[in-house]
Design brief:
By secondary structure, the protein is of the alpha/beta class. It has ten helices and eleven strands. A hairpin with a 2-residue loop joins strand 9 and strand 10.
C-alpha cells in the first residue's frame, strides 16, 4: 500500500476517537501490553518523560522536547492529535516519522489487528514506541491521550511524570467531579518516580499527594517553587522569566502551538 492508502486503512480499520467519538474509546492496558510483548516491549528500550493533565500537556511536552533536543539529546516526541499529517504525532528532534516506516509498521501489525482489535490510539502508541526504540532515542517525551490510569501510554516507566492541571474534561469517561478526574490522571504516578504537578488545590491536590505517598514518589508542586516569575506569549513562542535561570525563549514547534485538548 502507499502511504495515503495506509492512513486511509488505519482510519477505516481501527476505531478512532477523533472521528467516531465514544464508541472508539477502549480503556485498559491489557491489549497494548499484550501487543507490546509480541513486539519485544519497545517501550522499555528508552528513557521517557510522561506528560498528562487537562490543558497544556501538548505545549508542555513540545517545550520539553525542544529543550532536550537543543541540549544535544536525540529526543522523541509523541503527541495527539495531528493537524495536517498523521506523521506529526511521532517525531525525533522535530522531524516526523517517515512515510515508509508508517507503511511497514502497519503492514507488519496486521496480525495484531486481527487478534487484538486495538483502537487507533493503541496502535499509534505502539508505532511511536517501536520507532523510538528502533532509532535508539536518548529520551522520549510521551503525551497522555486521555486520563492517565488506563491510557495506552501508561505502560512506560518514565524518569519523570508531569500533570499540568485538572479541570472537567471527558466526564463520561473520567468522572463527573474534579477529584474523580484527578484520580484518573494520578494513575500515571508510579512507584519511586518523581511527579511534578503544575496546578492543584483543595481536593485535587489531596488526590495527587495521597497517590504519590502510596507510590513513594517524590512530588513537586510547581506553584510552590517560585522559579517562574512571568511568561510572555510572543510570536515565535513563549518567553520565560525565572528567578534561578534568567530569561530565555521556550519556542514551541509550529504544529503544537495550538490546544491538543481533543484526544487521539
Amino acid at each position: 500500500m502507499s502511504y495515503q492508502e495506509t492512513i486511509d486503512f488505519l482510519f477505516s480499520a481501527v476505531p478512532c476517537f477523533q472521528q467516531q467519538g465514544a464508541v472508539a474509546y477502549k480503556p485498559g492496558l491489557e491489549r497494548v501490553l499484550a501487543m507490546a510483548e509480541v513486539m519485544s516491549n519497545p517501550h522499555l528500550s528508552f528513557r521517557s518523560i510522561h506528560v498528562g493533565g487537562t490543558n497544556g500537556k501538548g505545549s508542555t511536552a513540545s517545550t520539553l522536547a525542544s529543550v532536550l533536543s537543543a541540549s544535544g539529546y536525540k529526543t522523541g516526541l509523541f503527541t495527539s492529535p495531528h493537524l495536517v499529517d498523521f506523521r506529526e504525532r511521532i517525531r525525533i528532534n522535530g522531524v516526523p516519522v517517515g512515510e515508509d516506516y508508517v507503511v511497514d509498521f502497519v503492514d507488519k501489525a496486521r496480525p495484531l489487528l486481527e487478534k487484538y482489535a486495538p483502537s487507533f490510539f493503541e496502535l499509534t502508541t505502539l508505532m511511536a514506541f517501536s520507532f523510538f526504540a528502533e532509532q535508539k532515542v536518548d529520551v522520549a517525551v510521551i503525551e497522555v491521550g486521555m486520563g492517565g490510569r488506563l491510557d495506552s501510554t501508561n505502560i512506560i516507566r518514565p524518569e519523570l511524570s508531569i500533570i499540568t492541571n485538572v479541570s472537567a474534561d471527558h466526564t463520561q469517561f473520567l468522572g463527573t467531579t474534579l477529584p474523580e478526574i484527578a484520580f484518573e490522571k494520578a494513575g500515571i504516578i508510579k512507584k519511586d518516580i518523581p511527579i511534578v504537578i503544575g496546578e492543584a488545590e483543595g481536593e485535587v491536590r489531596t488526590v495527587f499527594a495521597q497517590r504519590a505517598q502510596e507510590e513513594s514518589a517524590l512530588i513537586y508542586f510547581a506553584e510552590e517553587s517560585g522559579a517562574l516569575l512571568s511568561c510572555e506569549d510572543r510570536a515565535n513562542g513563549l518567553y520565560l522569566h525565572t528567578s534561578k535561570y534568567g530569561s530565555f525563549p521556550a519556542q514551541l514547534e509550529e504544529s503544537h502551538s495550538i490546544s491538543t485538548h481533543v484526544p487521539y
